[in-house]
Model the fold of this input.
Amino acid sequence: MRATTLETRYGEAQAWPADLGIDDTCVVCVGTNIPTELITASGFRPVPLVARPVTATPRADDLLESGYGAEFRSVVEQLLSGTADSAALVVFDRRFRDLYYYLRETVRLGWTPGLPPLHVFDLLLTRSVDCSAYNREQLRLLAVQLERSGGEADPARLAVAIGAANAWRASVRRVLAERRRGVGSGAAVFRTLGAARVLDRDAHRVELDELGDAPAGATGAASPVRPRAAVFAAETLYHDQLHTAVESAGAVVVDEDSEWGSRLAGSDVDPDTDPAEALLAKYWADGTGRELRPFDARSAFLRSVVENDAPDLVVVHVPPSDTRFGWDVPAMVRLCDAAGVPVALPRSDVLTDHGHAEAVATVARALDGGPAR
Amino acid sequence: MTTTTGNTTGTPREDLAQLDVTRSLRRHQREWWAQLKARTEENGEPFVLAGANIPHEIFEAMDIPFVTDVWYSGLVAAKRRSGHYSRVLDDHGYHRRLDRYAGLVLGVYLDEDQDQEKPWGGLPDPALVVTMPDHGAAENVAARTGATYLGLERPIATRPVPGWWELGRHAWEDLEGSDRVDAMLVQFRELVAHCERITGRALDVDRLRSVVALANRQQECFTEVRTLLSTAPKLPVRLGEVMSQVMGIQWHRGTEWAVQQAEQFRDEVRERVEREQWVCPNERYRLMYLGLGLWQQLEFFSRFEQSHGVVFARSNYLSIACDAYPRYGDRDPLRTLAGRYVTFNDYLHYPPWAGAWAEWESRTHRLHGAVQLDNGGHGTRFITAALEAADLPVLQLPTDAVDSRAWDENRLSTLVLRFIEQRLAGTET
Done:
């Protein structure tokens, strides 16, 4: 398959209503800080449930206060719409703690009889204190829950799952390295990688490998050199609208701080050590999001990009709904200023036409050396 | 037009004070603050800025000067300075939707001008900033001042018990789960290690044990106060004054002074009950207030006494002091504190705990309705659902606890009046 086909599969991941093809052989994963290799080894198919752009979330709005943004509402709307009802289990990562608490309560109150069993994989990502004993227990509890759901972790299957996941990660890393050259469309590569939401890793790897060295979005003709941009955002980048805004302004996206983009692969699970320890080490080391503490840990990716990849521009998107990410933004800007990298700070809702246009203008101003904050 | 106290229509806060302990609290706070400033800014002793969900008993046992960040924010709001420090935050790139309850402290540290106008003269630069969960602002305070930042994590509770308040005091190990308490304990040990590093002193566990015992004794006095408030024929003390007294004493939790003040508070409330000194002789409706304290406008709770006979009889502050703070178990006081805090914040906000607790208290306090702070926070829909399922009407109050930019006196008063006249009418005592 070609990049355009992967992008088509990405489009499926954006469609509403969501159809994830879930049945009782599936475990739905809300969040990416979850060791899916263990789920595979237990005989289940892990299915990511990721936010999708949607204009109305009436069921979610009944539960969620105004402080929750579009990403959480979209996830809750999918769950309350029955998207995961046929699954054997739904596993949340720590970032979705509030949703786990809320949906568990809806089950207790009898409001959502269709929801399958809910579990939370509470991996503590702090770098300030050694919580490895607790995290080890979390992995054990996940294994127990998978068994209760009808699965059975098989060591041989776990080894195979780890090997397959590592092979997929290698393919993802190759595509990311290619994109950093700044040729073609970074947004197209982002969509190509994002097809992982609807393809299993083996299928995704095969299709990524078939791309070869052809950059996504490249026409074959010599492309003008465009400024290379790295993108950071308050919410998970579950859509490509920020990317299209940046590239409409004239830059090419070469990195993004997103578990569905540059952070998709991370490091391998070490196949030569105890599988449980190896899984914990990998998922702890590659944890993403605001649960990562302290700021030095959360900003490590930004520092790495700025110091090693020399982007021409850093885009930090703070949408109107944000209530947390903004605490980090001034320090992120100072970091970029110290490195001499310009920063664009679009604050509009890029999922609206007006907001998208505003974001394009903000990035364009930054590229022109004008005020963009 | 506002008076010097910031009220637009009601009685100035000073005139609403009814208790002698309110005056003794203020005296103590002044004396204590002067000593803290002398110790930190003159003598150079290390100072800790801590979140509300951090065991202050550790600092008390180690004789480390400390202040709770969000409680200082409450002070900023009460002094009507939240607008100014919100603008300081805006000017430094912290956008307007970021929480001011935790953020005002950062505004105070960032404001290099007008030091003399900062509440109590401002805060000393900390050697350590520690919070749980991470408010975001606290880490910026540490970065600004060069302090060490320690962010602690609260393990998720997977076996909720709605009636937690009945089990927590003594059976907290079973209630919370040993694996979660262990995870909290390892973090508190790290906190102790930080404190030992900045002071050069070791924690005396026996001293900590004594401090925890004093804190429990203080909360026992608060429990007696709650019983008095909930069972008296009418309300003897205004909610704003109760909240201020409780929180003022909590600043000094684990000290002999705090126990004595709590005892005097209890005695004074008891005396008012015995003398039938009621806040509102024509009391008709008893309400609860849910959410963060309206520190910027505590007088609001008294606004409807004379016109409609409405009193606010219950808030989270006294109730959490009674139900979530006291934890007994002498063997390892640090573990006891871990048992206190591992679910503490969830009890206040999240289902099933918060709604079940509010419903229980509505019955024990003989309430007619509830007013809940609606600032986009957590769990409010479920609390409302729990209360309404028990036939208790709930009003959402769309404002902020400390941010004066969100306060619209006329709009909020109108909402409450409509609530009283349309939803409470006919239910009065």
User: Anything to note?
Assistant: The longest helix of chain B spans residues 205-231. Residues 62 and 203 of chain B are 6 Å apart (CA to CA). The two ends of chain B are 36 Å apart (CA to CA). Chain B touches chain A at residues 92-95, 97-99, 134-137, 139-140, 143, 149-153, 155-156, 158, 160, 179-180, 182-183, 186-187, 190, 346, 350-352, 374-382, 385 (CB under 8 Å).
